[in-house]
Amino acid sequence: MTFPKDFVWGTATASYQIEGAAVQEGRGECIWTRFSHTPDKVKHGHTGDVACDHYHRYPEDVALMQSLGVGAYRFSISWARLIPNGTGAVNQAGIDFYSRLIDKLLEAGITPFVTLYHWDLPQALEDQGGWTNAALPNWFADYTALAAKQYGDRVKHWITLNEPWCTAFLGYMYGVHAPGVQDRKAAFRAAHHTHLAHGRAMQALRAEVPNAIAGTTLNVVPHEPATDDPRDVQMAHIADGLQNRWFLDPVFKGCYPADIAAHLTSRGLLDGLDLDAVSIAAQPADFVGINYYMRWLIRHDPNNPENYFTELPANAQVTHMGWEVYPQGLRDALLRLHRDYAPPAIYVTENGAAYPEPEQVTGDVLEDPERVAFLKGYLSAAAEAMAQGVPLKGFFVWSFLDNFEWAEGYTKRFGIVHVDFATQKRTLKRSALYLKQIIETGEL
Ligand code: IFM
Predict the structure, then answer these.
(1) pTM above the 0.85 mark?
(2) Which of 93, 273, 362, 381 is the most exposed place for a label (fewest CB within 10 A)?
(3) Is the CB of 402 under 6 A from ligand 1?
(4) Digit-coded pLDDT (tens) for 408-444
(5) Would you call 163 a catalytic residue per the annotation?
(6) CA 405 to centroid of ligand 1, rounded, Å
(7) Is residue 37 part of a domain?
(8) How many domains does the chain have?
């Protein structure tokens, strides 16, 4: 399996998960600061206050990436670091931080891929309803214009949102992510505003950075019927619609999938939304990013409010998150994306795995054979999709560093670099050296 010479090999992180300095240097409070400081929301009461201290240690981190031969780095900008209250006054220290980081990356020959929103909404905006507020897309467009104006001379690759499904559903329906709201209607309202925000941000990017290479990142999760019972088959189609088509169709077709719109309308979940406004989401995009972690098997269940539940196949091999290791799912998701939506280019903007690992390590390299096997499997699946014509242009391993895994705190380690959170010592894992070898040879 040989990857083309111009294939983009990257690693990925997100601001709140690694930066620390969460309420320092002028950064405004974000919803994850508030949420993680609320008792019982995050395991062991962990917070992102310090995280990997990347805010102070970014030169060391960039040097480490360079030593691995990584060609691109996907990171996110913290909205509250640039604009502490989400709108209005700008924080110069925040502007300067990302400017220094971008310069360091460019000096190291690493292409920055910037995500504008990776879940750390300024708390001041959440206090006004957050993603459920119809003004959010405008606020996001203004913030995007500022970031684009500041960095567009050096950053060409832009991602508007990371996994808007999670923003809307984990944040506003299930309440397991910040801001912790549990309201089904609010979740669909929030999802609607993520689409409008993406569209507005694409327009702002095009206006500020005419040669921008821009798109969004969605978490695509195959939903397959657990049996051939027609009720499972039908529910799998609906579940796929709620998870995948509700996000893909607006971006590629400028409308919602009619079957799901009808399903939700009959339940009153779209009341008060101007569904036609979603057409703004279909701005011409240069690529779509997909984050791939899992597939679900669906069984219908009339007793469940969603009419279905998900299950793992018998004897499934799982990661520390309990997610099935199923590389074919990535191949199938890429083929489906290509077949049904035909984006001009696709990046896997995240794929990786958490496995139990010690908090402290000795030695120069931490052996992580399961993660090495995981990456080999998923990269093989990606290569198969490319062989079948999928325009996959790059692959970003999640994650560069062990980091704050949201409601799981620091208990789940996704990094190809181990972080000792007591000392901030970084130690390469074998998977990092495996990635280095792939980058050097193009072979798995
Ligand atoms: O850590 C997250 C990341 O922030 C978004 N995608 C999934 C990862 C693993 O849960």
Answers:
(1) yes
(2) 362
(3) no
(4) 999 999 999 999 999 999 999 999 999 999 999 999 9
(5) yes
(6) 7
(7) yes
(8) 1
Q: How far is the CA of 207 from the centre of ligand 1 (A)?
A: 30
Q: Is 163 in the pocket of ligand 1 (CB under 6 A)?
A: yes
What is the spatial distance between Cα 70 and Cα 431, in angstroms, rounded to a whole number?
A: 13
Token pair, residue 174, equals: 């299930």
pLDDT digits (tens, 9 = 90+) for 202-261: 999 999 999 999 999 999 999 999 999 999 999 999 999 999 999 999 999 999 999 999
52 domain residue, yes or no = yes
DSSP characters for 308-340? EEEEPPTT--B-TTS-B--HHHHHHHHHHHHHH
Q: Indicate if ligand 1 lies below 6 Å from the C-beta of 346.
A: no
Is 156 a member of any domain? yes
Contact 357, 415 (CB under 8 A): no
> What mean pLDDT value characterizes the chain?
98
Question: Atom of ligand 1 at shortest distance to CA of 14?
Answer: 4
pLDDT digits (tens, 9 = 90+) for 65-85: 999 999 999 999 999 999 999
Q: Say yes or no: CB of residue 291 within 6 Å of ligand 1.
A: yes
User: Which domain range does residue 89 map to?
Assistant: 8-221+345-441
Q: Is residue 421 part of a domain?
A: yes
CA 414 / ligand 1 centre spacing (Å): 9
User: What atom in ligand 1 is closest to the CA of residue 403?
Assistant: 1
Tokens 């102070």 sit on residue: 56
CATH of residue 51's domain is 3.20.20.80
